[in-house]
Here is the input.
Amino acid sequence: DGGITQSPKYLFRKEGQNVTLSCEQNLNHDAMYWYRQDPGQGLRLIYYSQIVNDFQKGDIAEGYSVSREKKESFPLTVTSAQKNPTAFYLCASSRGQGLQETQYFGPGTRLLVL
Amino acid sequence: AQSVSQHNHHVILSEAASLELGCNYSYGGTVNLFWYVQYPGQHLQLLLKYFSGDPLVKGIKGFEAEFIKSKFSFNLRKPSVQWSDTAEYFCAVNRGPPLASGTYKYIFGTGTRLKVLA
Here is the structure.
C-alpha cells in the first residue's frame, strides 16, 4: 500500500529534551511538509521540502529543525527551544510543487510534554 | 490578513439531517480549494477539490461543494448525514504567488467539528 507513515503515534518529551518525529512516504512524491495542529487553530506550516537536501521554513519554524537526506524521509526534530511543543504533528507530501497539487497526510504524532 | 474562515466550529446534527459547512477565503487571485476530513483516530483525508471548471464539485461519501467566486466561498454540503460522518472538517486554499523554491502554500481553516447523533 502506498502512503505516509509517521512514528511514533504518541511521544513524550521532557524539559530540555530534543525529540525527533519520523515521516516516511512511499508515494514517490517530491514535496514533503510538516504541520502543527492545535485545537481551534487549524494546521500551521512548520517546514517544507521540495527536493532532497533542500528545505524551507514555514510560518512557525522556530524551535524546530528538519532534514531531507532521502526522498522518502522528512524527519522533524522538536528542539528544547520550542517552548510550547504540545500539539498534534502532521506530515504531508505532494507529487510536485505546482498550484494544483494535492497534499496527502500521514496519521500524525501527538507530542506531549512531561 | 489573508485567511481561510470556517465560521462553524462545532455542529451537531441528527442522522438524515442536511449539512452545510461554510468556508470563506480572502484571496483575490487564482485559488484552488480543498475540503479535508479527519475521522476520529484517523489521518486527514481529501474529500474533494476544486481547480477549475464546474463550480459544483462532487467528492467521496456523498459530499459536494460549491465554489462561488463572487462570495469567495467554498461551502461543503451533504443532503443527508450519517453517524459515520462524525469528524472534523477542514477547508484549505492553495494559491499563488509561490513561496521560496516555487512551492505554493496551503492555508487551512480552523476546522469544524461535526457530531452526528444516531
User: Anything to note?
Assistant: The longest strand of chain A covers residues 42-51. The mean pLDDT of chain A is 91. The two ends of chain A are 35 Å apart (CA to CA).
